[in-house]
Specification:
By secondary structure, the chain is mostly helical. It is 53% helix and 7% strand. A hairpin with a 7-residue loop joins β2 and β3.
Length: 211
């Protein structure tokens, strides 16, 4: 997923100044892309402006440099839709930021597209579980380095697997719930209380959920 897709999604909801975008990406957005330098944001906005995806107005600020406030153009809206309608390829890592970005805007713009997105992700994670869950996770030790305790290493690996298995099962449960809501068109009319009856660990509406 490219930074421009994140910015397109954000600008689809309202206008942002470059400073506001920096602030979001340094907070909630840090889970989208780590170690993102503010210069990358401004370079990306400049490219988007060159492509005609965004325009900006200058907002005077007392005692501070003037701010550029960006908004999406019709060409930018088309670019956002092109990205949303491009094939979604699930990655090996679940709760990928590309999926969450797509879901957040697709659920609001095109319910059928959101259903296809969630169905694709759900099928991929079920296939992953079926393929890898039964595997032999025994570690073969052959002359381990001095001080390495094979029993503790195996126990630690089993503990990590236990966490991963539980996390992906929670993700699948959330996908199933999201699909049910989409198919029933239960997201219409607001979802402020949607988390109340969602599965534990539900990341709905929260791009900041750690992967």
């Amino acid at each position: 997923m490219k930074l421009e897709h994140v910015l397109l999604r954000l600008l689809a909801t309202r206008s942002y100044s470059g400073y506001d975008l920096r602030k979001w990406l340094a907070g909630e957005g840090q889970f989208v892309s780590s170690r993102l330098h503010h210069s990358q944001i401004y370079r990306t906005l400049a490219r988007m402006a060159d492509r005609g995806w965004v325009v900006y107005r200058t907002d005077p600020r007392d005692g501070r440099p003037d701010a550029k406030v960006y908004r999406l153009t019709e060409r930018g809206q088309a670019a956002l839709l092109d990205w949303l309608r491009s094939p979604y390829q699930p990655t090996s890592r679940f709760t990928d930021s590309d999926f969450l970005n797509r879901f957040l805007i697709a659920a609001a713009l095109d319910r059928e597209l959101a259903i296809r997105l969630v169905t694709t992700e759900l099928a991929h994670r079920r296939e992953q579980i079926a393929r890898f869950r039964p595997r032999d996770r025994t570690i073969a030790f052959e002359g381990p380095m001095p001080g390495l305790d094979p029993a503790r290493h195996q126990a630690a690996a089993d503990l990590v697997h236990q966490y991963g298995a539980g996390a992906v099962d929670g993700w699948v449960a959330w996908l199933q719930d999201a699909l049910r809501r989409l198919e029933a068109d239960a997201l219409s009319g607001g979802t402020a209380d949607a988390s109340a009856d969602a599965p534990a660990g539900d990341p709905a509406g929260d791009l900041a959920t750690p992967a």
